[in-house]
Structure formats: structure tokens, C-alpha cells
Design a protein that fits this description.
114 residues; 7 helices; globular
């Protein structure tokens, strides 16, 4: 699987799962997971307009990613920077649901992206 696909699918799966977020925080306590979830999406892995990135996805997949990104982008400034607070935030719960929707739209629920 291409690196862009791996990173995007893994990141969406992580964003969609409170259990995985808490597990990540337990495994890497020195990392601020709340901040990491934002940085991974906006800074590290989602690169619209990059030809190499876009070549790794179908047009339908890209459409779902664009929709998720727009949804997340509007809400990101409202998110706390602490995971426990974020998991209680209605805004984060909406973002998690949107990530879940993107996973479902692309049939990525059970994809083991490695």
C-alpha cells in the first residue's frame, strides 16, 4: 500500500476511535495526543493538490477526504489541547463521527494499513 494511503487511513481510524486515542496516549505518554491528531492530519499527511498524494486515491476517495478536511478545518480552532478534555468535547465527537463517515464512504473500516 502506498505511504499516503497508509497514513491517511491510519489517521482517520485513529481520529474515529476514542479507545485508540487513549491507547496511543498510554503507549506514548510524552506525546500530546490531542495536538498530534491535529498535526498529523493538517501538517503531516493530508496534502491536497499534491500530484503524488492525489495519485494514491480514487476520485471518490479524494472527495470524501476533501469533505472530512473541510469539516475538521472549521472545528479545529474550537478543540481543547488535552486529550481527556477533547474526548469530552462535543466538537471533537463531531470530528470523530466525520472521520468514521469518511472511513465508511471509502470502505476503510477494516483496512489494515501498514
Amino acid at each position: 500500500m502506498e505511504p499516503h494511503r497508509v497514513n491517511i487511513i491510519n489517521t482517520l481510524q485513529l481520529i474515529a476511535s476514542a479507545a485508540d486515542q487513549l491507547d496511543y496516549q498510554r503507549q506514548v505518554p510524552a506525546v500530546n495526543v490531542a495536538t498530534e491528531l491535529v498535526n498529523q492530519w493538517f501538517d503531516d499527511f493530508y496534502h491536497p493538490g499534491d500530484a503524488r498524494f492525489e495519485a494514491d486515491f480514487s476520485s471518490g476517495e479524494l472527495k470524501a477526504l476533501v469533505e472530512f478536511n473541510a469539516f475538521y478545518d472549521v472545528r479545529v480552532s474550537q478543540l481543547p489541547d488535552d486529550l481527556s478534555e477533547m474526548l469530552e468535547s462535543p466538537v471533537w465527537l463531531e470530528v470523530m463521527a466525520a472521520a468514521d463517515k469518511a472511513l465508511g464512504a471509502n470502505n476503510w473500516y477494516a483496512v489494515d494499513a501498514r
